[in-house]
Amino acid sequence: MQPKVLIIYTGGTIGMIRDEKNGTLKPFRLSRVIKSIPSILELGIEIHALELDEIIDSSNMTPDIWIELAGIIGEQYDKFDGFVVLHGSDTMAHSASALSFLLENLAKPVILTGSQLPIGLPRTDARENLITALEIAAMKNADGNSLIPEVCIYFEDQLYRGNRTHKFNSENFDAFLSLNYPILAEAGVKIEVFEHRLLERPTKKLVVHQKLERNIAVIKLYPGLNFRIYAEMFLKNNIELVILESYGSGNSPTDKQFMEDIKELLQNNVIVYNVTQCREGHVEMGKYESSSELATLGVISGADVTIETAIAKGMFVLAATTDVEQRKQLLQISLRGEITT
Ligand code: ASP
Predict the structure, then answer these.
(1) Residue 34 above 80 pLDDT?
(2) Ligand 1 neighbours by CB, cut-off 6 Å
(3) Same domain membership, residue 222 and residue 195
(4) Structural domains in the chain (count)
(5) Fewer CB within 10 A of the end CB, N or C, for the chain?
């Protein structure tokens, strides 16, 4: 029996065409995407496809659409061996992270892919990305189960754990990085899957979560930042989680006002989550004097989480429980392989 894969089309450059009037790229319908690659019908995969009501540039992605996507995958879960989500690359890392949390006990592949050039152009990267993503989504192990039990991004020959990715290049076909976790597979003449790097196959049934709480804020430290303004704004607007994009291994200024502001946030039950601005490496509060006070005050460490995943995980964890201690605990453990513990 042929493996069955569902394509879910959300939009992105992959399906865009040039607007004749003003020359900008705008999203187009799925039928055009599929028609552009007749060879997908020769893959030996039974392919079904559906598209969201509104086809978007992924700059317009929202937590509600993540919930909708997770819901679609949940509804179609038993009918398919794998899923390919066509998505713009700009917020693909965010969506892959969010889906990884919303889909608990996932035993089948959910592969996000897209392209840097529209599918209709002669030099497009869309064809290879889509064809290989479909092949990966259809892969089975010796027991006949889907091989890859996780949410991934496939882009330019490499398969990444979705919640470890970051879009680092807006011009090259090679647009994604996963610096704190190695790639899961590489497509050359053959597709080589590094099975020992995959998440363990879950024994429990899929749970599709349907809630994300947006009450979070991200603040990036820079020399000269007036943190007071933001601390006041966070308190006034009942922000419950502040992601502090810190320097290096989790360092921050040590001046009295900054520490007072952090203390005030914490006293008001705002969680302060320390995530490094560096793309590689992890937060280690206490390594330098410039971070030891943060730890003493009760700021929690994001370890080697990406900023995209810190945001998605923050929304997920706030929705999962109202208990502050429990929230802090969930943020500091690996739920879907998103941090190295
Ligand atoms: N702006 C586009 C999007 O994210 C870029 C892309 O698809 O690569 O939808």
Answers:
(1) no
(2) 11-13, 57-59, 88-90, 114, 116
(3) no
(4) 2
(5) N
**How far does the centroid of ligand 1 lie from the alpha carbon of residue 32, in Å?**
17
Taking residues 120-138, what's their average pLDDT? Answer: 94
DSSP tag of 247? B
State in Å: Cα 146 to ligand 1 middle: 29
The enclosing domain of 60 has a CATH number of 3.40.50.1170
Q: Are residues 158 and 237 in the same domain?
A: no
Co-location of 99 and 20 in the same domain:
yes
- CA distances for 48 relative to 18, 52, 78, angstroms: 27, 14, 14
Instruction: Note if 296 is an active site residue.
Output: no
pLDDT band at 183 (very low <50, low <70, confident <90, very high): very high
| Residue of 25, 57, 121, 173 to test ligand 1 pocket, by largest number of atoms within 8 Å of CB | 57
165-174 per-position pLDDT tens digit: 999 999 999 9
Mutating to test ligand 1, I would choose from 26, 85, 90 the residue with most ligand atoms within 8 A of its C-beta, which is 90
Mean pLDDT of 50-72: 96
pLDDT for residue 33 is more than 80 = no
Among candidate residues 208, 233, 266, the one where a domain is terminated: 208
Residue 251 DSSP SS3: strand
Contacts of 226 (CB under 8 A, 6+ apart): none
Q: Which is nearest to 30 in space by CA: 56, 4, 5? A: 56
SS3 helix, strand, coil % of the chain, rounded to 5? 35, 25, 40
Which ligand 1 atom sits nearest the alpha carbon of residue 13?
A: 7
Domain limits for position 323: 216-332
- Domain identity same for 285 and 263: yes
Q: What is the pTM of this model?
A: 0.96
59 CA distance to ligand 1 middle (Å) = 7
Centre of ligand 1 to C-alpha 90, Å, is 5
Q: Which of 10, 13, 91, 165 is catalytic?
A: 13
CA separation (Å) from 129 to 88, 119, 177? 12, 10, 16
